[in-house]
Amino acid sequence: MIEAELKARVRDPESVMRQLDQRADAIAELYRDTYYDVPSGDLETQGRELRVRTIQGEGSPRSVLTYKGTRIDEASGSKPEHETRVDDPEAVDAILRGLGFSPVTAFQKRCRNHHFSAHGRRVLATLVQVPEIEGTFLEVETL
């Protein structure tokens, strides 16, 4: 599957939030992301990503393992993406470390997700705040 994702800094988060709320109900979630690479940094150098994400929202937390290949479209940043749910993120961490990967960065994202259809496509529009980065961002993605 190929994911197209665009990101932008939002200057008026309240206005954007109101407009998104008119399109779809918001789902508030906290993402805890850990990105992995080999000691040589080959994944980052090649524009690939390997991530374990734990999502906390309503209900029980869920975790996913994601691999993103190199960009196939520079303008949109589209990449092939493969993702699978994992029951035990600590076990996945141990497996990845055993295979020679190490965590290179970890952070949290406060997300306000809106799922809707536009122009015949399913769209996820997310207002994002990362505590270590000032401001609010909008991420829009579709397959």
TrEMBL record:
Q: Where is the composition biased (Basic and acidic residues)?
A: 70-87
Which InterPro entries does the entry mention?
A: Adenylyl_cyclase_CyaB, CYTH-like_dom_sf, CYTH_domain
Which Gene3D superfamilies has this protein been placed in? Hypothetical Protein Pfu-838710-001
Identify the SUPFAM superfamilies for this entry. Answer: CYTH-like phosphatases
Out of the domains of life, which is the source?
Bacteria
The UniProt record lists the CYTH domain at: 1-143
Region (Disordered): which ranges? 61-87
Q: CDD domains under this entry? A: CYTH-like_AC_IV-like (cd07890)
Question: Matching PANTHER family, A to Z?
Answer: CYTH DOMAIN-CONTAINING PROTEIN, SI:CH211-156B7.4
Q: What is this protein called?
A: Class IV adenylate cyclase
